[in-house]
């Protein structure tokens, strides 16, 4: 770090896995994010495996407005032509805590408090749920809607830029109105 009045210059010797990743400052150190898409819908479970096997990364959320904008804008740019869904979404970190799966109405399991699994993250101010979310119902298939997505408009606008929860095991919700075609991977820069 150097200072030349009136500017501080900080040199970072760490880097992301490759140029397709974008670096952000986090309290834990430089952090890299990459938003990837699939031609077919992708389940959160598959996205998690892909992040981990390609670069030893994990699904990541957004720690501030710059990360939120990057994830949201990049995911939307991957699908500039609307598909036949009310919303598309991008998977990111956030998994319902196991202690909340059967008792979502307890004090420690309401709203955002029901979710965990946010490595290297310290800020959740931009995690906004639309009315009716998080939805703790069990799907007819028997799966909980225990994973988080960031939605953007295709045909409707109420959930645009909002966090919703969905079943990790499926790319689309049961009515095929909201479908995930992308995911955000993250890793500490090395």
TrEMBL record:
It comes from Caenorhabditis briggsae. It comes from the Eukaryota. This is Protein CBG11628.
């Amino acid at each position: 770090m150097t200072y030349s009045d009136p500017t501080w210059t900080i040199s970072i010797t760490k880097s992301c896995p490759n140029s397709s990743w974008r670096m952000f400052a986090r309290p834990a150190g430089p952090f890299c994010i990459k938003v990837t898409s699939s031609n077919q819908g992708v389940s959160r479970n598959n996205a998690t495996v892909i992040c981990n096997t390609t670069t030893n990364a994990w699904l990541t959320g957004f720690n501030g407005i710059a990360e939120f904008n990057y994830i949201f804008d990049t995911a939307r740019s991957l699908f500039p032509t609307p598909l036949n869904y009310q919303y598309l979404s991008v998977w990111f970190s956030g998994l319902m805590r196991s202690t909340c799966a059967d008792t979502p109405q307890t004090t420690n399991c309401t709203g955002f408090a029901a979710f965990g699994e946010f490595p290297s993250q310290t800020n959740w101010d931009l995690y906004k749920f639309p009315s009716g979310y998080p939805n703790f119902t069990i799907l007819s298939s028997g799966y909980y809607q225990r994973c988080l997505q960031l939605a953007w408009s295709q045909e409707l606008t109420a959930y645009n830029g909002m966090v919703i929860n969905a079943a990790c095991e499926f790319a689309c919700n049961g009515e095929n109105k909201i479908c995930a075609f992308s995911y955000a991977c993250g890793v500490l820069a090395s």
